[in-house]
């Protein structure tokens, strides 16, 4: 098992980042790849979780240890796989997520791709005591606002699709994103996730 990898971010895609460590490029699936865009060609530490299945060995990456711990708690909930957990962690309203779990707000949780009422209820049941008293600042860095139509916006929209959001929802928020200001894909994606949920 790996705790973290330290290396250079050499590639950022809508679903994953590539971290070069000792001449080897590791494909790390992350909740929001574009938050690593500013770190391209810089040495960074990414916390990892290795999932082993019959047909694949997959690495999931996290900005810090706290995000990794929340991911591990989410995948231990019946009905939540790694992709669903990443889609939940990609939400920029982290305090809203924590509050929804703590306050039995099943409706809030069903907004995430692949999360139905039954699974949302299971998340609340399994994690309510674990998130009690938790704040988003203890877990995540703050989200950043977003900008007009450009390649960064297109990358953000591709990332939403990769996270499993429906095309009609993506088209709906694109109109709103065209009216805001941003410079990076990370900024667009943060705003898009806030609008879509």
UniProtKB/TrEMBL annotation:
A Pfam short name: RuvA_N
Lineage, highest ranks first: Bacteria, Bacillati, Bacillota, Bacilli, Lactobacillales
Subcellular location: Cytoplasm
Swiss-Prot/TrEMBL keywords: Cytoplasm, DNA damage, DNA recombination, DNA repair, DNA-binding
Protein name: Holliday junction branch migration complex subunit RuvA
Superkingdom in the source lineage: Bacteria
The organism of origin for this protein: Limosilactobacillus pontis
Domain Helix-hairpin-helix DNA-binding motif class per the UniProt entry, residue ranges: 72-91, 107-126
UniProt remark on domains: Has three domains with a flexible linker between the domains II and III and assumes an 'L' shape. Domain III is highly mobile and contacts RuvB.
Segments for region (Domain III): 148-197
Matching HAMAP family: DNA_HJ_migration_RuvA
An individual GO BP term: DNA recombination
Gene: ruvA
């Amino acid at each position: 098992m790996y705790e973290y990898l330290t290396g250079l971010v050499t590639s950022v895609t809508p679903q994953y980042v590539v971290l070069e460590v000792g001449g080897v490029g590791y494909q790390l699936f992350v909740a929001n790849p574009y938050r690593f865009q500013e770190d391209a060609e810089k040495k960074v530490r990414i916390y990892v979780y290795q999932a082993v299945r019959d047909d694949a060995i997959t690495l999931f990456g996290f900005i810090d240890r706290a995000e990794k711990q929340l991911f591990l708690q989410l995948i231990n909930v019946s009905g939540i796989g790694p992709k669903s957990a990443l889609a939940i962690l990609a939400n920029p309203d982290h305090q809203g997520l924590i509050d929804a779990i703590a306050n039995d707000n099943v409706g809030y949780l069903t907004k995430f791709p692949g999360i139905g009422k039954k699974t949302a209820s299971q998340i609340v049941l399994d994690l309510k005591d674990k998130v009690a008293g938790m704040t988003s600042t203890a877990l995540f860095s703050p989200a950043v606002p977003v900008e007009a139509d450009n390649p960064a916006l297109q990358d953000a929209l591709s990332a939403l699709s990769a996270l499993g959001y429906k095309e009609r929802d993506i088209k709906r928020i694109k109109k709103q994103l065209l009216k805001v200001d941003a410079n990076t894909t990370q900024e667009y994606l943060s705003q898009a996730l806030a609008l879509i949920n």
